[in-house]
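Chapter summary example: a protein plus nicotinamide-adenine-dinucleotide.
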Amino acid sequence: MAACGEIFYMDDKKTVVVTGGASGIGEATAHRFARAGWQVVIGDINEARGEKVATQIGEAGGACVYVKLDVRAADAVQEFAETVYLQCDRVDALVNSGGILQNAVRTIDLDMDEFDQIFAVNVRGTMLVNQVFGRHMIAAGAGSIVNMCSLTTFRASPQPAYAPGKAAIKSMTETLAAELGPKGVRVNAVAPGYVLTPAMQARIDEGKRDPGAVIERTAMGRFVRASEVAEVIYFLCSEGASAVTGTTIPVDCGWLVSTAYGAYASQIEDAT
Ligand SMILES: NC(=O)c1ccc[n+]([C@@H]2O[C@H](COP(=O)([O-])OP(=O)(O)OC[C@H]3O[C@@H](n4cnc5c(N)ncnc54)[C@H](O)[C@@H]3O)[C@@H](O)[C@H]2O)c1
């Protein structure tokens, strides 16, 4: 396991741990917190990208280290947390952005190995990281956690492993919020719409997502930017959200409302 940078812990700074911080929404989140003066620990399975993002944040004047993490393995999550807490007395916020996507497939055709892989990262991984850091936050009597849901948390989708997993994360978030609230720890989730991250771009390049259909189905007529998801995550971890716990906030350019509205049985003629 790569070690935390030696210069790392500073008493006067808040610390955020971002799993999946090497790419996409997690990367944007790492940058957002660093710009606000937090010290950032990126935990990610991708060493090359994790190191690169930490270096970029450092070059921009922020404090960030990369520590290797595979959220699928309980001992790896434990070791990761020990490495972090060796250097940091306190972790003020945890963002669980480590995850994998799924291409469309019918439930009856789903390969159960794919189901297991997706659940191992997205659901079990999120659970493990929540457990380990949740224990430390309870001991500290403070902290904020943000988990990563999706539009599939709320709507049927031909992603029969990814979608139930993202629904499970909403339930996990609510259970944790109820359990950890009395201990001073808030737990929320964001549900991003379509974000043009490297993972999403790869699906588009393979012809597995139609960007035109995405744009057409949002009220705002565009993709969500990773930085816009990061902004809501940052808010949820800030004092501004001090009474907010157990919520799952869509950040979707109005995809949820627009798809429901567009499905109404008769359409209104445009008078304008
Ligand atoms: N991109 C979207 O449109 C979108 C929409 C809704 C939700 N999400 C969710 O947001 C999260 C981030 O997605 P993204 O689009 O930024 O993807 P991404 O691939 O750009 O980033 C995901 C990161 O997770 C890391 N990761 C994967 N497996 C891991 C493991 N076992 N242990 C540790 N790290 C691991 C990857 O290395 C990568 O750096 C995921 O949970 C995804 O389901 C994405």
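Key point: The pocket of nicotinamide-adenine-dinucleotide is lined by residues 19-20, 22-26, 44-46, 49, 69-72, 97-101, 121-122, 125, 148, 150, 192, 194-195, 197-200 (CB under 6 Å).
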